[in-house]
Amino acid sequence: MTNETPGQGQEIEGSFEDHESRARCSSVTGRICLADVEAEQVRWLWPGRIPVGKIVTLDGDPGLGKSAIALTMAAIVSRGGPRPDGTRCDHAGDVLIMTAEDGVADTIRPRLDAAHADPRRVHVIDHGVDERGAPKAMTLAATDEMERHITETGAQLLIIDVLMAYLPGDAHKDQDVRKALTPLAKVAERTGCTMLLLRHLKKNTGGEPVYLGGGSIGIVGAARAGFMVTRDPDRPDDVRILASVKSNLAGAPESMAYRLVGADNGSVAVEWIGEDQRTAAQLLMASSDNLGEGMRRIGEFVHSRPETMSGDVAAEFDITPKSANQYLNRLKARGSICQIRRGVFGPKNSSSNHAEGSEDAEDSEDGEDYADQSATANLHPCPSANGDQAYPHNPPSPHSPVAKGADASVGPVGTCPEHGSPLGLTTGKCRECILERARANSRSSMPDRETSDPDQRTEGTYQDANNFGGDDQAVYSRGR
After folding, report:
1. pLDDT tens digits for 92-121?
2. Alpha-carbon distance 259 to 238, whole Å?
3. 109 with 251, same domain?
4. Range of the domain at 263
5. What are the pLDDT digits (tens) for 187-229?
6. 343: in domain
């Protein structure tokens, strides 16, 4: 015997049987029962990449070809035919364009012609002019007008270039963004028209690719697929990559390599090179860390010599000494090369004792390279830690011709007689002497900054680097 509330079993049973009644009530209750929803396959404008009737983002820095790629997609939709990955568009359709940056006659039409578009199927939405003759401002809030254009043309694709020009409200507020894009997504779903939104990248390009597009994360959150264009860090400067950053409706597609080439009509066209196995995250990591072909060549250069300094790399590859120092430190951090001593690097299997180099590895990547300053004239050895000045004159300015390495006949800076370490170009002192003098001057007024007792670590002061001979080492003696 079951303890059952009278009528409960019958009510539940009846609710599962009366499908017609439930369907009639859905319009009243505002609910949709999934039992009444017929499952559908995702339809694709570009199989595996661009879904039909959804929002899609395309992000990238200016000059990398976002607009050219968007117009190439428009051309394929307008005429049908092969896509860059070898699939075919068998059903040509119309395309709508909203543009805030490019001229219709001198940019959009020539690019479409270069991509062999059917211009009869491509339409630019004209916002019209106001009573003063000025162009009317249009935003994504005008979804009724946009839906009218889509319905009248039967458009399969609407390109919005660039999104920020048409987004009402604050593009960085998630609530404002979703308030604008939710109605747009509904229009896309009702009409089957894909909305391709173009964005520039943020100035800060660190982090995951999905976060790099301009505005709120809610923009790519509303999209069902997202792409970005970036330079190829391992190939010549003219090669770019179209890579997926989001793919909700299928597995992430392969990246596509391309370059922009001159067209016969004087415009530009996209030349597709082929698929690329690297993801957007891998490409950005390689680019931000300066990896790729340049890093590989510098690594090979270091391995071809017993000892290498940043000046050697700078001269060989025509880069600044600071950039060369960054390359060397990053190769060392990845275990590709070793540091033999301060500022001097060698092959990974170098037999030199680089324990000292490891101890000295506290030099910042972005700091000066003490071992490898270009050249200067007749600098005397480093003064000892007691502060005695050994120079008969002030050291040369780092902006002087000699300090910049213009005089190739000048000898090396030299080494400190007390520590055997290389001397800085501007100060003529080694790093140990600078630090020892800083500690000696600060010891009388504060506990040693190396003390292990945190209660004895007092807040110190910045010591002017000029007190210790120049700007090679800005000494910070604040207690940690």
Report:
1. 999 999 998 899 999 999 999 999 999 999
2. 6
3. yes
4. 44-288
5. 999 999 999 999 999 876 557 888 889 999 999 999 999 999 9
6. yes
Q: b/e map of 307-334 (b: 16 or more CB within 10 Å)?
A: ebbbbbbbeeeebebeebbbbbbbbbee
Max CA separation in the chain (angstroms): 109
Q: Which of 237, 259, 288 is the last residue of a domain?
A: 288
Into how many domains does the chain fold?
2
Q: Over the Cα atoms of the chain, what is R_g?
A: 32
Q: How far is CA 182 from CA 157, 162, 176, 177, in A?
A: 18, 18, 10, 8
pTM here is: 0.59
Q: Which of 134, 131, 113 is nearest to 122 (CA)?
A: 113
User: Please, are residues 268 and 113 in contact by the beta-carbon 8 Å criterion?
Assistant: no
Tell me which amino acid residue 268 is.
V
CA distance 12 to 9: 5
Of 252, 267, 288, at which residue does a domain stop? 288
> Where is 347: in which H helix or E strand?
strand 344-347
**Alpha-carbon distances of 114 from 76, 91, 108, 157, 197, rounded to whole Å:** 12, 21, 10, 19, 22
Verify that 148 and 177 share a domain, yes or no. yes
Q: Is residue 432 part of a domain?
A: yes
With beta carbons less than 8 A apart as the criterion, state whether 169 and 30 touch.
no
